Amino acid sequence: MPRVIVVGAGISGVTASIELRRRGYDVMLVDPGPLPHPLAASTDISKAVRAAYGADEFYTELAERSIPLWRKWNKEFAVELYHQVSVMFVRQREMKPGDFEYESFKILERRGHKIERMNSTRLWKRFPAWNAQRYQDGVLELGAGYAESARVVALLIARAKSLGVELREGARFSELDESDDRVGGIVLDDGQRIPGDLVVMTIGAWTPYILPFTRKFFRATGQLLFVVPLVFPVANGTFLAVDWICLRQRPQ
User: Which pTM does this prediction carry?
Assistant: First the structure.
């Protein structure tokens, strides 16, 4: 049975490990821990699950495939990991071609998503807590929501172990074990060599630092996020709870 070493036990690493194991591979998952790792991109209070990605229609297609699977996980784990509460993007002027919100709206509209264009009037009527004079335009994606990301990773790690994935928590990757222009495994920081037929690196923003040769073509960037719990009065004494809103800044 071919052996695959997966380095990095975030959401990409643990889901890759589960899928590889189901396909019959002997899988080892390596991470320095603790798990979920507090600095992993997938370890957070929540992550937006939405199909609005501006002009990047490829990501919209991925979201369309993922949302039904999130609902499936809710049933499989018998716990609500994905919450469909809608996601809204608004801006302070009328959105125009090239804007994230405009391109998102047009693509979602064309692909048949449940959306609403949120001009000042609609925004004030639906969410009176918002300053409708300040936020003049935007898009509300009704089928979107958020996932409890750290909780998801923890449950998936447990599932991976139950399927027979060997978890090496506390093991720190040092370098690839290479000879004759071939990768034959990995080397840990204590010098231990772990052989493998295939190595899958799922290390996210650490890639150009852990694999220095990738600095020629990889560069890690980020966005500033604020997590704000919000409650909006809707009508007749009814309130809409929104667990977070994302205020974003494009990376420079």
Answer: 0.80
